[in-house]
Amino acid sequence: MSVDANPWDPRKKKTTVVVENDIEGRELAVHCKSRDDDLHLCRLQPHRSFDWTFRPTFFETTLFYCSFDWGEGVRWFDIYIQDRDYYICKYCRWLVRRDAVCLTTDSNQACYYYKRR
């Protein structure tokens, strides 16, 4: 059986990540990257978002990380970790808040604190 014929191959299923500014009254500067891709700086007004779509790797190593700045210092977060997120969402909507980033799905919301650098 070839890899292309395997219906469980994660490379066949696209994932979309959405990052939304949920900070009232503040523009949010977002810069997301992976090892291979730089999505460049994006400036979001409150309740505005940007998104990208990709195919996760077969080896479950896909990682996208972002920096966030709304004028109170830069924060960082691993916005997509394949072995954390692959089975949770194919449409991963993240709300960026002052104290945390929150993954929202149809049935749940999970908030995570920013990484310390």
TrEMBL record:
> Origin, by domain of life?
Eukaryota
| Pfam families, sorted | Self-incomp_S1
Keyword annotations of the record: Secreted, Self-incompatibility, Signal
Annotated localization:
Secreted
Q: Name one GO biological process term.
A: rejection of self pollen
Say where the protein is mainly found.
secreted
Entry GO terms, CC:
extracellular region
Family that this chain belongs to: Belongs to the plant self-incompatibility (S1) protein family.
Family annotation (PANTHER family): PTHR31232, S-PROTEIN HOMOLOG 29-RELATED (PTHR31232:SF43)
Q: What is this protein called?
A: S-protein homolog
Origin species, per record, is Linum trigynum
